[in-house]
Amino acid sequence: MEAVMKIRPKQVFFILVLLAATAVLTACSGSAADTRITDVESGREMRLSEALGELKRNRIIFVGEIHDNPTHHQGQLDVIRALHESGTPVAVGMEMFRKESQDSLDRWVAGEMTSGNFRKVYDDNWNFPWHLYAGIFEYAREEGIPLVGLNVSKGITRQVARGGFQSLDAAQRASLPLVTCHVDDRYMAYIKESFGMHGHGQLDFTYFCEAQLLWDKAMAVHALAYLYEHPDVVLIIVTGRGHAQKMGIPAHIRKRSALPHAVLLPRMAEGLISGPLGSEDADYVFHPNGDNRRAASSD
User: Fold this and answer.
1) Domains contained in the chain, CATH given
2) Is there a contact between 210 and 165 (Cβ–Cβ < 8 Å)?
3) How many CB atoms lie within 10 A of CB 70?
4) What is the pLDDT of residue 209?
């Protein structure tokens, strides 16, 4: 005679909780392609899944952020996930890591570094809370997606911001993938508009512009170097909104290469840089799922 298994009420409760959690995870995993984006030139709003065919034609996709906004990082993860799940070979270029930290990034993705040790590397590179980027780091590790450090030594950046590019000695300049750092009036006006919501104490504004230009140029050169070594990869660059705009890193990509690229910027509802975006700034504006209700109510 077969035994009849009795299920107690407590077991029923835990089974229901497990099923509910599974349903939530399934819904979340399928939500990336549903992220809303707007084509800046046409004004057409669509789901990310509808733009994948166009996005996949690019070798570089910039996805901007305000560093401390978690919904922007969710939007970045949505773009990474949607492209990866479409079968596109992708890598993630990061403003948050110096090029010299590449070995640690490789070891993290390969599963050869603990979360605790990788977090120490992150804290040495970047000064925003770990949890903002944790989802991107974990997904890259789970899926074996390369993470690419694009930035320059923070010591050099800090020195330029305080004393200008002219303060670097010959050895410091030799370590950079560029030899000049000329800031014109147009770029200064762009920096003032793009970074107007950030406070930078008593830093000389011209020197601050030189530091930003140094970042833009160096990250463009490092990104192109990676792509020339990996000709089948689409590089998704996560970086600050000011660097992602077409006058930022993309301008230096265009000066050095004909590789196709696209710019996605987060929808800004507040702040000094919340003015309307034009096609000279970006190709798409994305509305992370966490912002969808707010965006819809204010459109």
Assistant:
1) 36-298 (3.40.50.11550)
2) yes
3) 15
4) 73
152-186: pLDDT as tens digits: 887 787 787 788 778 888 877 777 776 566 777 77
Alpha helices in the chain (DSSP H): 9-29, 48-55, 70-85, 102-109, 115-125, 131-143, 154-163, 170-174, 185-194, 205-229, 241-244, 249-256, 292-298
pLDDT at res. 109: 98
Please give the structure tokens belonging to residue 205: 């504004």
Angle at 128 between CA 114 and CA 205, to 5 degrees: 140
Contacts of 193 (CB under 8 A, 6+ apart): 273
Tokens, residue 108: 């993290």
Sheet holding 234-240, edge to edge: 45-47, 36-39, 284-287, 261-266, 60-65, 234-240, 90-98, 147-151
CA 154 to CA 125: how far, in whole Å?
A: 8
Query: Which tokens belong to 239?
Result: 């970086």
Q: Residue 177 in contact with residue 218, Cβ under 8 Å?
A: yes
Structure tokens at 5: 């298994």
User: How much is the mean pLDDT over the chain?
Assistant: 81
Residue 240: closest CA among 101, 102, 62: 62
